Amino acid sequence: MSEVIVAGGGPAGLAAAIAARQAGFDVSLFDGARPPIDKACGEGIMPDGLAALQRLGVTIPPSQACSFRGIRFIDDSHSVGAEFANGVGYGIRRVLLHELMMQHAATLGVRLHWGARVAGISAGSIEVDGRRVPFGWLVCADGQNSPLRKKSGLFASASARIRYGFRRHYRVSNWTDFVEVHWADRGQMYVTPIAQDQVCVAFITSDLGLRFDAALPKFVKLAVRLRDAEVEGTTIGAVTASRRLRRVHAGRVALIGEAAGSVDAITGEGLSIAFRQAFELAAAMRANRLDLYQKSHERITRVPRNMSRLLLSLDRRQRFRQRVLGALEREQGAFERMLAIHTGSGSVREVGLQQALRFGWKLVNA
Q1: E strands along the chain, which residues?
Q2: Of the residues 17, 129, 210, 326, which has the fewest C-beta atoms closer than 10 A?
Q3: Rounded-to-integer distance, Cα 278 and Cα 284, Å
């Protein structure tokens, strides 16, 4: 019997498997797909996520990634950016990240079963391709629409905010060492450098009928940058959701990654959240107390969830967005402090009431 079975072999599932193996568990991972496994995402890892990945023992060769040193918000009238206070982030192709994590998991002794779909759960066992496999702990990492979550009696909030994302790669001379978030009336496009001559451009919108090519001209500054750039590969899409669960465990079953709830992709924190959850879950299983994981999960997701609400309040509200970006331009330190809070190198308490009031005054008078 495997002490820990992980259902789902994306980055969240691989992180859970690696952390459990580091904690001394016997681990098997099952996924119905076969590598390489890709997904429409921004392909950026924030500094806190990169630190967690390194703690997992996964090293990203510099030749396979591109570092970025901060975040910049851009619209037709404003540009405001800040550098990270806690290192750099990395842009890396999703398939390359998956390959590195998969290799490391195998090196640690995780048994990887690809093309093996987990179809059901019963008391102390899962069903895989018609056979029963017993477990001590089951970790469900099967995505935001997790079938295993439902089978475990854990249900997501019905009030999820759904948006639609598309990802495309461009072969172009890299013009930035920041992640750029471009704002327009019907969504955002964010640019992540992933090589010296390549960028990943992700488009997120609430408009189901709007596609990448129709949206790009609305982002005037970005459209100029990409006018003569070569599109590489195909454009792929996915759904991004802001979804919260009351509980992320039941009995000896725990959820991780998007199966455990998600924040909108605009935060850029999806991978960071999953990597940090992996350590907390491994420790909770070792202590035989999944209630500890519940508390850690709430702590890890609190700031990204609040940041998601803040950023989404700017979506489709042009005048309010312009006032906020204008105020951030005039109060440069405010954006730096927001970014520090977002990436875990600062706290709301450190910002202080006086600075918050000063930014609020600039916003009112924008």
Answers
A1: 2-7, 27-31, 44-45, 66-68, 70-74, 79-83, 89-91, 111-114, 118-122, 125-128, 131-140, 161-171, 179-184, 187-195, 198-205, 230-242, 249-250, 253-255
A2: 129
A3: 10
* pLDDT tens digit sequence for 292-328: 999 999 999 999 998 888 888 888 788 889 888 888 8
Question: Which tokens is 322 given?
Answer: 């312009």
CATH superfamily membership of 2-39+93-158+243-311: FAD/NAD(P)-binding domain (3.50.50.60)
364 pLDDT higher than 70 = no
Q: Do residues 184 and 212 lie in contact, with contact meaning Cβ atoms separated by under 8 Å?
A: no
Helix (H, G, I), strand (E, B) or coil at 284: helix
How far is the C-alpha of 149 from the C-alpha of 267, rounded, in Å? Answer: 24
Cα distance between residue 342 and residue 270, in whole Å: 12
Q: How far apart are CA 301 and CA 250, in angstroms?
A: 19
Question: How far, in Å, CA of 144 to CA of 139, rounded?
Answer: 14
For the chain, what percent of residues have pLDDT higher than 90?
70
pLDDT tens-place string over residues 208-245: 899 999 999 999 999 999 999 999 999 999 999 888 89
Q: Answer whether 34's CB lies under 8 Å from 43's CB.
A: no
Given a contact cutoff of 8 angstroms between Cβ atoms, the answer to whether 115 and 229 are in contact is no
Dist CA 105 CA 55 (whole Å)? 13
| Token reading at 293 | 């994981």
Find residue 237's DSSP bridge partners: 166
Q: Which CATH number fits domain 161-241: 3.30.9.10, 3.40.190.10, 3.40.47.10, 3.30.70.260?
A: 3.30.9.10
Residues 113-139: tens digit of each pLDDT: 999 999 999 889 999 998 999 999 999
Provide the 3-class DSSP secondary structure of residue 57.
coil
Q: Where are the domains of the chain?
A: 2-39+93-158+243-311, 161-241, 317-364
State the DSSP code for 90: E
